[in-house]
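User: Mind token order:
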Amino acid sequence: MVDDMNHACSLEKSSFSLNLVREAATDALRRVLGSLDLGDIELFVEPRLLSLFHHATSLSGEDLTVLRVREIHSLASPSAPPMPTSTVVYIVRPQTTHVQLVAQHLLQQLRGASSSSSVVLYTGTWNALCADVLSRAGVDKQVAVHPFQLGFIPTDNDMLTLAHDTLLRDCYIQNNKTTLTELGHALHVLQQTTGDIPTVHYKGELAKAVWKSLSEFNAASPPPSSRPKKLRIDHMIILDRKLDYIAPLSTPLTHEALLAELLGLQNGTVTVDATANAGTVAPTSVTISDKEGVVWSLNGDDRIFQDIRNKHIQAIGPYLHSTSAVFAEERKHMELLLHAESTTVKQLDELGTTLNQHMDKAAVLSQHIALAELVQTTTKSKSFKSQWQLEKSILERQPHLGDIEALVWQHAPVYTVLRLLCLYFIDYIYI
């Protein structure tokens, strides 16, 4: 089963009421599973979508039981054969790589003489390439295909994603632009919740394709013309990543971006070594652990994270220090109140609740201090500062190709060298 339910942002503070987007996807999944009358279900979800499952829907364990969902599996991981009486339901995005996983799994079932029936629920729009994958594998007759109205997935109060991590590579290198249609469809689904977006601007070839796709979907099925002001989006700007390659190739200096760059922050969670949670080991010994790690939630529900996520790294320390001082004063005040002879029974009862809340906030603050120290072990290093200075010089059009070549002889990480080379040629030679 999916184990990150507790890490999804509540979206209660979203300016666009993105919780309604999540609820719309939840209702869509309920409807499609309920309408098909599948009996007991075993869900197999493509890995990237599975990591976002509880960002996409708000289904609880009880909800899944009502829908007769027995288990949720990753489509890419080996698993025990489904129960003979269960219906296997795949949830995938309509891309050939994902549909190939479905075909492979279906073939494994057939070789295992499984009698389970199968259904594919696809997000976006099904296309001929996906149908061809099932046909070539010879499993197109063994599976029923149905749409699942899932568009953008809200991961924070101000963030939506389709999690197409390879979109640019697919479009420019593999010349596969089917995902742009899915982007248009996702915007169309978003408009079903927020209402029509009256003004849409685009810049770039890919952005234009997304806009055209959105226009076609809206022509076929017009979105609601009006929504309450809180839900309404008045303007939308669609930009190609191609307009600015420099930003993603440069070393970030904001707190959230550095957490993503150095500690792998993704989907509002970061995994750190268990010793970081204990707070008894020096920061330099705390590293990311794939096996034994503690998952910390970082999203808009966390007031401290909301305050510091976009701050420059040099501003994080002073902020956390001042917050610690405020917490210390609060604790001192509560201790004085606790031992004061004039304190009433009612005040003591209220103090118990206040103290518990204070302890929770202090624990969250300790986590942020630990994360800041982890980041600083890198940002204060000589290699980090040298790389940042090199990037700065490249952006100032200074010839530093020799310095990049020197990194090769120093056996610097390949990713670092390639990133600097790309930055150099984009900015200095301007290709």
